Amino acid sequence: MALTGIQILKMLPKKNCGECGIPTCLVGEASAPPIRTIKLGAGESAFTTGGETCMFRHEKRFENATGIAVLVSTDMSGADIDGRISRFKSLRYERVGVLMKARLIAVKDSDGDQGKFVALVQKVLAGADDATLILMSNKSALLAEGAKACGERKPLLYGATADNTADMAAMAKEAGCPLGIRGANLDGTVELAEKLMAAGLKDLIIDTGARTMKAAMEDNVVARRSAIKSKFKPLGFPSIAFPCEMTDDPMLEAMIASVLIAKYSGIVVLSDLQGDILFPLLLEQLNIFTDPQRPMVVQEDVYNINGPGENSPVLITCNFSLTYFIVSGEIEGSKVPAWLLIKDTEGLSVLTAWAAGKFGADLIAQFIKKSGILDKVKHRDLIIPGYLASIKGELEEELPDWSITIGPREAGHLPAFLKEWKPAA
Hints:
By secondary structure, the protein is of the alpha/beta class. 39% of the residues lie in helices and 17% in strands. The strands form four sheets. An eight-stranded parallel sheet has the order 10-9-8-7-6-3-12-11. The mean pLDDT is 91.
């Protein structure tokens, strides 16, 4: 009977010295996620894909968001390439404190010209300093030179097929970069993965060769199920999909990308980036890859908005991030300088936090006294959310020196409210 991981662990020295090449004495392979974690790039702009452990988000959570990439190729005009790089840099959005953007640029060799390919790689590196690169060619020599140009910004080297497996394996080993493989179909992908794993490659990203939405989604589902449920290692890698090769219609391409983001693609490559297409995909990505078991929160603190002074209004709300960004956005849009107090409610919204006893009068009073707001304003007028009108009396008892004003129920009414606000006499 095979030994369990715990039984093996008991036989190990438990020194965690790293001499064997494994960071701890735990059994690394047994504890690794069924979808291998692959890291690309370097530093703060590094991109991580894989690491997934479940089929459905509600079972636990999805670990690493799908990377959105834009394609540039050596047969494009300089203006087209510059436009894509420019849009990669400019189309960025902040929502609930999260910066949403495309993360990767795929650089494709279209004619086998090594000089043009390396020059394009260098142009992308210089023009998009936070982009992670995918280098695409069926020639291992070109990918090797492209990888050298990337230096520490470790790219994905995409191009291993049944015809060039040995050359690509040797090149990826020497470059020390993850290798992308493209099979003729799902079975062909399994064969390729097995050969490359036998050759000692561990960091792979798979493309089953499907070039329709239906086939790509079906392959993704089969691969994820095989890896998660059956621990089938040849499919236990992140996947890459190419909506840019499935249609010439930008809207249809966006629809295909949205399906493949929802159904397990680790990277999707688009033909171009446009705000009206990219933003919905980024919102979908944010929603799917937000941990459902952990509310998004902001830090308990006093936030100054629009440069408030000692006579500026003081508002309070909960630390649920969506509430904070909606309320702060409305205050900022009003152009009225204000102090916004954010009380820690463990990520619960206003009414939920009040019902759970985390946003009551006594806790608000304690927070007001320790927050430091007393030293920032001359007046003693606190604006509370309209949904907390019922605690006005209790709060006045807890804060006898303060006048409590009931604010609007909807954040959208804050600008008009603040423009009319005056401290209580």
